[in-house]
């Protein structure tokens, strides 16, 4: 399976992640996550797709991950759901915005620091941890 078809699900109730193979889901083999997902409970989960890019320690980036370059510039991986476009959003003012002009540039040149759910403190611009 391609990394691009790898997903993780954030459970907003249990505050944990579950992983699943997108191909299995497409074939109707959706795993059970311990709670019902229906239109009334849609906000209980967030599905985050892998973007197919590795950091310099060979960890895959997913939508919602927070990365950092050696110069301290931090960013969040985002997805515009209207046009299905993956992009980054800088946390604070970037010293060198060109380092992430294309998503491929973050691969191997940055490290994954955490994600928006488990590490919200990293979203504070002046927080250098």
Count of DSSP E strands?
8
Main sheet: which strands, in order across? 2-1-3-4
Beta-strand portion reads: 35-45%
* Contiguous uncertain segments of 5+ residues: 22-26, 28-36
Order of helices and strands: EEHEEEEEE
For the biggest sheet, the summary is: 4 strands, antiparallel
Structural class: mainly beta
Average pLDDT number: 78
Instruction: Bin the helical content.
Output: under 10%
| Tally of separate helices | 1
How many domains?
Answer: 1
Structural write-up:
This protein has 129 residues and is mainly β. Helices cover 4% and strands 39% of the residues. The longest helix has 5 residues. Strands 2-1-3-4 form a four-stranded antiparallel beta sheet. The chain has a four-stranded antiparallel beta sheet with strand order 7-6-5-8, with no helix packed on it. It is built from one helix and eight strands. It has one domain. About 11% of the residues have low confidence. It is globular and about 45 Å long. It starts with 5 loop residues before the first strand and ends in a 14-residue tail after the last strand. β3 and β4 form a beta hairpin.
The gist of it:
The chain has 129 residues and is mainly beta. Helices cover 4% and strands 39% of the residues.
List keywords for this structure.
4% helix, single chain, 129 residues, four-stranded antiparallel beta sheet, 8 strands, 1 helix, mainly beta
Question: What layout of secondary structure does this protein have?
Answer:
Elements: E1 6-11, E2 16-21, H1 22-26, E3 45-54, E4 60-62, E5 65-69, E6 74-80, E7 85-91, E8 110-115
Antiparallel strand pairs: 1-2, 1-3, 3-4, 5-6, 5-8, 6-7
């Amino acid at each position: 399976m391609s990394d691009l078809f790898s997903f993780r699900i954030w459970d907003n109730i249990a505050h944990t992640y579950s992983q699943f193979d997108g191909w299995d889901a497409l074939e109707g083999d959706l795993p059970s996550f311990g709670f019902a997902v229906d239109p009334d409970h849609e906000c209980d989960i967030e599905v985050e797709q892998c973007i197919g890019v590795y950091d310099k320690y060979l960890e895959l980036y997913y939508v919602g991950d927070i990365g950092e370059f050696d110069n301290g510039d931090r960013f969040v991986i985002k997805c515009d759901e209207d046009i299905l476009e993956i992009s980054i959003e800088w946390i604070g003012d970037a010293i060198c915005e060109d380092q992430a002009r294309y998503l491929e540039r973050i691969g191997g040149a940055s490290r994954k620091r955490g994600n928006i759910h488990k590490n919200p403190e990293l979203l504070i611009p002046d927080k250098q941890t």
